[in-house]
Amino acid sequence: MSIFLPIQSVRLTLREFREEDLNEMHHYLSDSEVLQFMMQDTNTEEGSNAYLKKFLQFQKDNPRFFVRFAIIEKLSNCLIGECGLNMPNIQHKEGELVYRLNKKYWGNGYATEAASEVVGLGFEKLGLHRIEAMCDSRNASSIKVLEKIGMIKEGCYREHRWIKGRWRDSVVYSILDSEYFIQK
After folding, report:
1. Which positions ≥6 away from 160 have C-beta within 8 Å?
2. Residue 117: which domain range?
3. Angle between helices 22-29 and 45-58 (to 10 degrees)
4. Cis, peptide link before residue 63, omega less than 30° from 0
5. Best label site of 33, 42, 43, 84, fewest CB within 10 Å?
6. Which DSSP string do the residues of 34-51 spell out, in sequence order?
7. What is the pLDDT of residue 1?
8. Using CA atoms, how far apart are residues 80 and 102, in angstroms rounded to an integer?
9. Alpha-carbon distance 72 to 7, whole Å?
């Protein structure tokens, strides 16, 4: 039995990506507003296809260093975004939380709901000790998500990344397993 079986929350199903997800994935990966604070530029359909294929390949890796779930809204059965963990340093029991949503679904608490489930997976099933997240300091919505799921601001990397023609300040948030289990 895989620990990466679909995760059910109140309004969402988090499942691994499938080839047939390309069109819905491309919808948010080609939206400059969705990607405005991210390093990634908008994708062509070919770029979105390559991005999807990368996650399909990661599903075959053992151990898994990158886990990415398609976020499915139960009510509409639509793919509305992605959420997952990057764990290239799994030997240190650490992961990085990542997420993005189709803007049509912003402001409904879906990112918070999905991120909370993925953090739970990281601590409860994967045995991580620390999960962190980094975002553009201007991305107030993402900061709100991180704080709602119990992450603590560790600091700010000033002019940390050159993105889309300007320097970006990046804020870093984290949560430890002990903090997660106390909140739960």
Report:
1. 167, 168, 169, 170
2. 7-183
3. 120
4. yes
5. 33
6. TTTTSSPPPPPHHHHHHH
7. 46
8. 5
9. 10
Averaged in consecutive runs of 10 residues, what is the pLDDT profile of the chain (184 residues)? Answer: 84 97 96 91 92 95 94 97 95 97 97 98 97 97 98 97 94 97 88
Q: What is the pLDDT of residue 69?
A: 98
Q: How many CB atoms lie under 10 A from the CB of residue 95? A: 28
Total count of domains within the chain: 1
The one-letter code for the residue type at 119 is V
Closest CA to 111 of 150, 75, 148, 139: 148
Residue 90 in any domain: the answer is: yes
> Please, are residues 121 and 64 in contact by the beta-carbon 8 Å criterion?
no
Q: Is 23 part of a structural domain of the chain? A: yes
* Strand-by-strand arrangement of the 166-176 sheet: 7-8, 12-16, 66-73, 78-86, 94-101, 130-136, 166-176, 152-163
Question: What would the two tokens of residue 141 be?
Answer: 């919505």
Alpha-helical runs (H) found in the chain: 22-29, 45-58, 110-124, 140-148, 177-183
Count of residues making up the chain: 184
Q: What is the CATH number of the domain that holds 68?
A: 3.40.630.30
